[in-house]
Amino acid sequence: MNLPKNSKIIIYQSERSFTGEEITEIEQMMDEFMKRWNAHGEALTAAYALPYDRFIVIAVDESRVATSGCSLDSLNRLVKRVEAKFNFGLLNQMRVSYSTDGEIFTLPLSEFKQKVKNGEIPEHSNIFHNGVTTLEEFEENWEMPLAESWVGELLQN
Predict the structure, then answer these.
(1) Helix, strand, coil content of the chain in percent (nearest 5)
(2) pLDDT over 70 at 155, yes or no
(3) What contacts 157, CB < 8 A, 6 or more positions away?
(4) What's the pTM value of the predicted model, to 2 decimals?
């Protein structure tokens, strides 16, 4: 995404990969939304990506116009429309996604923690840290080795 590194990041994760047809529809919905997305009548400078055909990542340059409660509500309405149409689990924030050997898995947080403690998730796996807040953090720390993430402490128990 060609925006300043301090741009705000919002991430929605799916419980499964998007199909080609779904990607086309999501892109159409996102493109239309981005054309009219604003905060108090001021156009927002934003971009989106669909990494791994499984996440919807939105970046907003707030240096000129900051997002507002209303603008974030409109984004959430869009995501709810996508969710209603495809049932991806985008709004369930109590899930964790990780990748192992090129395959992405999404589990409920409690199940994920238990699997880590039991050694059922390989230590060479990468975790997706959807709590990053800036484009720079997204680019540098969104996908990181399990042991270096917040999960690392579970490996030592």
Answers:
(1) 40, 25, 35
(2) no
(3) 117
(4) 0.93
